[in-house]
Each structure stands twice: as structure tokens, then as C-alpha cells.
Amino acid sequence: MTNDLADEIAKALAEYSEELAEEIDEAAEEVTDETVKELQETSPKKKGKYAKSWAKKRLKSGQWVVYSKAPHYRLTHLLERGHVLKNGGRAKAHVHIAPAEQHAIEKFEERIMRLGK
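^ that's the sequence the OP posted. Answer follows.
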């Protein structure tokens, strides 16, 4: 009798854990989609190719990643931090990645908190 109760509790907890993991993954994917859209809107636009280069992918570990596709990934650091110009002086920094990252963290934490309630 005691083993049956323990088995049922373990089974219920396993189902809950699996369900919660799926909901967390869904929240992560949604936040990733929103972050890609935010970066596409807030990125500097000369011709628009850099802004359109933002995408998402899922790693083998199951994590979602937002990244800039080739060859535009080379520009992210230069645009975010500014850089020295060929003829002297410095290019102004266009900070757009850090705010999007902060928004993504806040959104994800908020959604995780809602799942726990």
C-alpha cells in the first residue's frame, strides 16, 4: 500500500515536471521570437540588411539563441560599441543589443513566474 502511494506521487511529479518543462520551452521560444522582432526594429538601418539578419535557432542542448546571420554578425560588436574610423575619429555606438537582451530576460522571468502560480 505504501509503495503504491509513493509510486503514484512519483508518477504525478514526473508528469508535472514534464508539463512544466514544455511550458518553459514554449515561453523561451516566444520570448526569442519577440527578441528577434525587437532587434529587427531597433537595429541601425542603412540599407536594412543588418536589421533583417537577426534570427533564432535551437541548440542541441535545447536552448534558444538569437543571433545575427553571416556576414552581418561581424558588425554587431562594431555597431554596439562604436569603432575607430579609417580617416580618424570614432563612429558613434548604436546600442541596440543590450536593451533587447535586458527586455528578453525580464519577459522570460515574468513568464516563468506566471507558470509557478
